[in-house]
Design brief:
By secondary structure, the protein is an alpha/beta fold. 32% of the residues lie in helices and 11% in strands. Bound molecules: zinc ion. Zinc ion binds next to loops.
Length: 380
């Protein structure tokens, strides 16, 4: 059924690099395919994705309070060891809220078994298998996930529709960050088409594509995203935050999400000064958010295994969290790519333990409320 639906709308995108994170260590090298080109052909029966009502008009940017969360009813079934506080504010003996919404804001889903295959991941890699939300839910987790925002790594235009169809079938997928190429002459039309689906919450682009436009002072596509109430995810190397610091004030209504803390290499040494300066510069703009994701990949560069001790990551996390603050840091895993560096449970525990050290309100923000500010994934 889903494959036939896909075929009915098959239309492939323009040539583009296919990456997920900036992973280039030996163990992860096969994850990245910068030279992979997708062929293009016309759609026999191109149709828009099934669409619920369009985005609400709300366009206020960051710093504004998020919509009131859809809090579940007050709990009666207190866990053992829970402090005698009421309802959603109850905190268990381990310091975590009994009710904690956790949206993993950086996952990848794909199905190499569909007739047209996938442009990413490459054949012969451990990632080359069907990966769907149910597979994520089946993992051993440190804390249960309540939803995810999936990020499209494939440059095929119709894969935006494929993810939207997946999200339509599975409400666990609360949002889709799609993949459209800046510079595509059909960018505006494609943006309009996909943004008609409420689940479409933004697109991801490379920092090099952003840098070109910053240097040419070309803001049109960014403004179109902002006008559509969509967010811009940006993936690239440690110079990415500094690039975003130049983009952000030019399009202040655009919500920008730095991916993977800029893919800095995490080591026992102090964080690099230039990366730190870029992070601080980006964080000065209230429309820039930072996704704390791909942490274990950052620590597994050059092929070494990712440490499981939070102290190893702490200087890097401090360098991000201090300037961005409690309201602009977002949880993401980068699963399944992350599995090559550490288990989901390990990476999740590292991120959540750090966030919890900032206090329970900060933890709640990190796990769900900040992504609501950035992506507006919760219909208001
Ligand atoms: Zn990724």
């Amino acid at each position: 059924m889903q494959r036939r639906e896909f075929l009915a709308t098959a239309q492939r995108g323009i040539a583009a690099s296919v990456t997920c994170g900036l992973a280039v260590p030996a163990g992860l090298a096969s994850v990245t395919h910068p030279d992979l080109l997708a062929t293009r052909f016309a759609a026999p029966n191109s149709q828009p994705p099934t669409t619920p009502p369009a985005n609400p008009a709300a366009r206020a940017v960051t710093g504004q309070p998020a919509a009131a969360p859809d809090k579940p009813a007050v709990t009666e079934n207190s866990a053992a060891g829970e402090k005698p506080t009421a309802g959603n504010d109850a905190v268990a003996a381990d310091g975590y809220p009994v009710k904690l919404e956790i949206i993993d804001c950086h996952t990848h889903f794909y199905d190499p078994g569909r007739p047209e295959g996938v442009p990413w991941p490459g054949k012969g890699t451990s990632l080359y298998r069907t990966v769907l939300p149910k597979d994520l839910r089946a993992l051993t987790l440190f804390r249960p996930l309540t939803g995810t925002i999936v990020v499209e790594a494939s440059p095929w235009v119709e894969d935006n529709a494929w993810l939207l169809a997946l999200a339509a079938r599975d409400p666990f997928v609360v949002g889709v960050v799609g993949n459209l190429q800046l510079g595509d002459p059909e960018f505006a039309a494609r943006l309009k088409r996909f943004a008609a689906d409420r689940r479409y919450r933004g697109i991801r682009v490379s920092s090099s594509a952003v840098k070109e436009r910053v240097e040419r002072r070309e803001w049109r596509e960014f403004q179109q995203l902002a006008d559509a109430n969509l967010a811009l995810d940006v993936n690239g190397g440690p110079d990415t935050p500094a690039i975003l610091a130049r983009l952000a004030p030019q399009v202040p209504e655009l919500r920008i999400v730095l991916n993977h803390i800029g893919n800095v290499r995490i080591t026992a040494a102090a964080p690099p000064a230039d990366w730190r300066a870029g992070i601080a510069a980006a964080a000065r703009h209230p429309n820039v958010f930072c996704k704390i994701s791909a942490l274990v990949e950052g620590a597994a560069r050059d092929g070494q295994s990712a440490p499981g001790e939070l102290d190893f990551y702490r200087p890097y996390l401090d360098a991000v969290w201090d300037p961005f603050g409690d309201e602009r840091v977002i949880y993401g895993s980068n699963w399944p790519v992350s599995e090559r560096a550490a288990s989901y449970s390990t990476l999740q525990q590292l991120a959540l333990e750090y966030a919890r050290s900032r206090g329970v309100p900060a933890l709640r923000n990190f796990c769900a409320e900040n992504s609501q500010r950035a992506y507006r994934w919760r219909p208001s």
